[in-house]
Amino acid sequence: MALMPVSDALAAVLAGAEPLPEETVALEDAHHRVLASDVAARRTQPPEAMSAMDGYAVRAADAAKIDATLTVIGEVAAGRPFTGTVGTGEAVRIFTGGVVPDGADAVVIQEDTVAEGKRITIKEATVTGRHIRPAGVDFREGDVLLRKGIRLTERDLALAAGMNHPQLPVRRRPKVAVLATGDELVMPGTTPGHGQIVYSNGFALHALARSEGAETIDLGVAADTLEATTAGIRRARENGADILITIGGASVGDHDLVQQALNAEGILMAFWKIAMRPGKPMMNGRLSTTRVIGLPGNPVSSYVCAFLFMVPLIRALSGRQVIHHRRERAVLGRDVGANDQREDYLRARLELRDDGTLLALPVNHQDSSLLANLAAAQALLVRAPFAPKAEAGTPCEVLRLPV
Q1: Separate counts of helices (H) and strands (E) for the chain
Q2: C-alpha dihedral, 381 to 385 to 390 to 392, nearest 10°
Q3: What Cα–Cα distance (Å) separates residue 34 from each residue in 28, 161, 171, 392?
Q4: Percent with pLDDT over 70 in the chain
Q5: Are the C-beta atoms of residues 84 and 68 closer than 8 Å to each other?
Q6: FRET partner for 38 with CA separation of 20 to 30 A, picked from 13, 59, 341, 360?
Q7: Containing H/E element for 284?
Q8: How many domains does the chain contain in total?
Q9: Which CATH number fits the domain that encloses residue 72?
């Protein structure tokens, strides 16, 4: 099978990826969930004109001149309105959030008055509407303020609560199952034997998937046997995984058994091998309703492919408005060589110059096994296939990595 361009591979991964079904969750459980439908206000906020300051509710005409004196006839506090009407020459003591009483059309802040018993003297003239929040200045009943497809922030939850919604309609979280393969892998905290390495890929992938709003299922590490690999794939389907991520075993070695196991289970393969670096030996296909992404075993390749393909797929299934990573313009911080037929994703650090220019500095060593360089990078510097060598200062494009 020929190497597939990255854009075609991403299109294949996302083909037919529709948002998952809707469910209703309590407001306190809706943080970072994706809204499934528009949400309109159930009330007007504020429902009545309210004071924005502590002071006195007055008729603006009575307080238009300095040294005017008014008689205080009552008091308003938040939640305790004044039931009378403010007449000529009268004022009502009012506190922030209090309902402006009938007859009043301005609030004079307490610092601009001198109080003596039941009388106040105006020391700063006012005008109609000063220090008053009109009814509906925030929103009105029926206003659609939260749109479907947004990922709900803490600010959105505050708005939803203010709109009088105790629950919200959201998309079901995608279930992402992660299956690693390899006899050489041991868990962190153990002492690797001769020829063994510490398993690291899965921890990054689980965290990346959860940060995008998915639930994750840890299928552990399967031994390098067809039986163990097949059993792991079946557990993913039994657990209702929407996405199965396999790590390793995607190449062409005698012990790379993932593709064999997937074929035995009846996968509809979309592609195998991509024209990208790192991450050439990546697979994608479908096992009934489970979407499969087979990642390379090298940790950098695994993470970069997950970032480029798994993340957009999670977003699509979640019903997000924005699915694709945004490319940013930058300039090269050092020279880079000519590229071959594969699209390169170079790990790079970012620096912001005083003039606002974003500088991309590729790390010195781009080997796909180097975790320290991956952890130190803030972005992927994208180099098109057959791009010629480029000198420092040349414009380029980067994809920011999560922070």
Answers
A1: 8, 26
A2: 0
A3: 14, 16, 6, 41
A4: 98
A5: no
A6: 13
A7: strand 283-287
A8: 4
A9: 2.170.190.11
Residue 56's CB: how many other CB atoms inside 10 A? Answer: 30
**Pseudo-torsion of CA 222, 227, 230, 232, nearest 10°?**
-30
DSSP tag of 108: E
String of DSSP letters for 146-202 = E-TTPBPPHHHHHHHHHTT-SEEEEEPPPEEEEEEE-TTEE-TTS---TT-EE--HH
Element (H, E) at 233: helix 226-238
| Token pair recorded at residue 253 | 């070695």
Distance in angstroms (rounded) separating the CA atoms of residues 298 and 296: 6
User: What distance in Å separates the CA atoms of residue 286 and residue 262, rounded to the nearest whole number?
Assistant: 9
**Residue labelled with tokens 């979407």:** 291
pTM confidence score: 0.89
Alpha helix (H) residue ranges in 239-310: 258-265, 299-305
Together in a domain, 202 and 309: yes
The pLDDT of residue 79: 87
Q: Which residues of 221-253 are buried (b: 16+ CB within 10 A; e: fewer)?
A: bbebeeebbbebbebbeeeebbbbbbbbbbbee
Residue 1 has pLDDT above 60, yes or no: no
Q: Which amino acid is at 350?
A: L
Residue 97 located in a structural domain? yes
**The amino acid at 401:** L
Contact 89, 60 (CB under 8 A): no
